[in-house]
Specification:
hydrolase; 38% helix; Ureohydrolase; Arginase, Chain A; alpha/beta
């Protein structure tokens, strides 16, 4: 059944450690114009407010950099995503860094408060740190912890200031519900760069990670079949795709934290198409295209455009 697609453009990059991801969504749109693709003219495009001006000031939150701005970004996303879903539309989100994805999940939960949300997180990184465990303070490593409502105090290594803790608790409560997802309803694909504190969470909650080697040995069809089975009791599914899940040698290094030995673009396309075909899927998000770091001009954006176009074609059938 054909979906009413709405593109949400979120240029917030206040949670990343490198600059330039705010240019990523428009780099994908530019790639479409260069190619002669009209997908951004054929569907509504709405822009999300960002607070990137905070990057022009120092942050006082050592272990949750610019968390004060992220609370507002989450709130805006929560309202917008919930509104789009409430209008029976399908949001495809082009976002800058991955830190705002917790706001997307909040919006899905606000739209469907009584529904169980499954999350397919396709990424090189687990993004499940907290201010108590982060090695960098960059909040693009924490969105899943906000959705799960966890602190991971079992692995605490940072002494976090009370003001930061207050904002962290606000972040977890955006939308008025915490937790928003259950650990058993979170599935990783291609995660291959984690810290010990994150490994502890994955082990404690028995969170599944289908590694690139699993995709190669079993094939995409077997992996997605296993994920369908794992998430069979979920009412809706959110797919979050970080471009660093792909192998930078096969795409480019046009992303903030590239990691070797990732998925091929064809594997990524097959995985995304599968979930676009799943009637339970209610939102797909693409993040972390950074043209400032792209040694192949705008190749990462062009690869991402190809993935987006394929999802649009699938959703319109």
């Amino acid at each position: 059944m054909s979906k009413n697609i709405v593109f949400l453009i979120n240029t917030s990059e206040i949670t990343a450690g490198t600059r330039g991801a705010s240019l990523g969504p428009n780099a994908v749109i530019t790639a479409a114009r260069k190619k002669g693709s009209f997908i951004f003219g054929e569907h509504p495009v709405e822009k999300i407010k960002n607070l990137n001006e905070l990057l022009d000031q120092p942050t006082v939150h050592q272990f949750a950099k610019r968390i004060d701005g992220l609370v507002e970004v989450y709130s805006v996303l929560n309202s917008k995503v919930a509104s789009v879903l409430g209008n029976n539309e399908f949001p495809i989100i082009l976002a800058a860094d991955h830190g705002s994805a917790g706001g997307t999940i909040a919006g899905i939960k606000s739209a469907f408060p009584d529904k169980r949300i499954g999350v397919v997180w396709i990424d090189a990184h687990a993004d499940i740190h907290t201010p108590y465990t982060t090695p960098s303070g960059n909040m693009h490593g924490m969105p899943l912890a906000t959705a799960l409502g966890i602190d991971n105090l079992e692995c605490q290594k940072n002494e976090v200031a009370p003001e930061t803790i207050s904002l962290w608790n606000q972040l977890k409560q955006i939308g008025g519900v915490s937790p928003k997802i259950n650990p058993q309803d979170l599935v990783y694909i291609a995660v291959r760069d984690t810290e010990l504190q994150e490994d502890n969470v994955l082990s404690r909650f028995n969170i599944e990670n289908y590694k690139v080697a699993d995709v190669r040995s079993k094939g995409v069809s077997e992996i997605v079949k296993a994920i369908d089975e794992k998430l069979k009791d979920c009412d809706c599914i959110y797919v979050s795709f970080d471009v660093d899940s792909m192998d930078p040698e096969l795409t480019s290094h046009g992303t903030g934290t590239p990691v070797a030995d990732g998925l091929t673009p064809d594997e990524a396309k097959a995985i995304l198409n599968h979930f676009a075909n799943n009637d339970k899927t209610v939102c797909v998000e693409f993040v972390e295209v950074n043209p400032c770091l792209d040694e192949k001009i705008n190749t990462m954006a062009e690869v991402t455009l190809d993935l987006v176009e394929n999802i649009v074609q699938t959703l319109k059938k």
